[in-house]
Sequence to fold (360 residues):
Amino acid sequence: MAQDPPYRCSHIRTTHGTIDTPALIPVVAASYGIWDRWMEGAHPAPWDVSQAVLLSLYHILPYAHRDEVFSKGIHATLGTSRPVWIDSGGFQYMKKGVELDPLEVLSYQHKSGCDIGVTFDYPLTPALAQDERERRLDRSVSAANEMLAHNTDMALYGAVHGSTPEEITAYTTRLDTGFDGFGIGSLVPRKNSHEHLTSIIHAVRSQTDDPLHAFGITGFPALFALSYLGVDTFDSWTYVVAAAYKEYVHPLTLSRQKNLRSLHALPACECPICAEHGLADFLQPTSESEMLLAMHNLYVFLDEMANIREAASHGELEAYILSRGEQNARILRAFKIAKKTSSLPATRPLLRGDRHRAGR
Fold:
């Protein structure tokens, strides 16, 4: 008998609306670069066109308007009525050697009025000594359970870490019940190893039907492969980082077009930005130029995720990915790895979320 594909379409209901999945959640780095210009409202912003946005406490706490975020709320600060996630910033703080108190993180998330918070964590890196790995895993589990115990009405995702399926299973058995979803971390340092990514995702997805979020994985090969394996949401700021380097996400090949100055014209694109602007507008050394290019890049990501949802809803995601792989060999290679991984034995379901609180 043929095996059912692991992907699915779902709906994450929040106070500020429903997120249809699989979905890309743009990262908003409020203390970085062009964000204040977007908040002035002169140009369409990521939160105007996406289903939801994600901010990190790492960018909020040093932000000039942090008091406004915690007094008026993140929705009023951004000027949006759509769902907002607040990540703990564990990965960024780890790189700086800084730790936050988990309950302080929870307090900030509540004060912000965000729809979904994520527990503070201590991510893994490939070169860690075993005793340090175990210490970080212990502390991530402890922080997650402590925040869950003190949470009230905010949807809370538990951070999940591990470098092997066995480590993932051991970790998740120690999480308390009641999380509204799970965010899979420690993926970025090995994001180019699709064998690693798919094995970790498969290990977590085989244990729960609750929403899964993959942190920091945004390249199209991984987006296709992990959507096939059942990841519900991804976060990305590739769209704006690429724009800072004057890189244009190609709407057909889904690759990052560099050296724009060497081009005579851009490829055909149906996004609203390209309908009104051309190559010369993207090449100007201004913040407006960077904003336009970032929004084009974001539209390509969002449109492709909409195509993934449409194909998945009709049970045709594999065929769609294969068609996209004709233009991008990396997409095809990543998908073949994901499909092989999906046939591996699934572990017994262990994670149990509280669906009533999340409203799913």
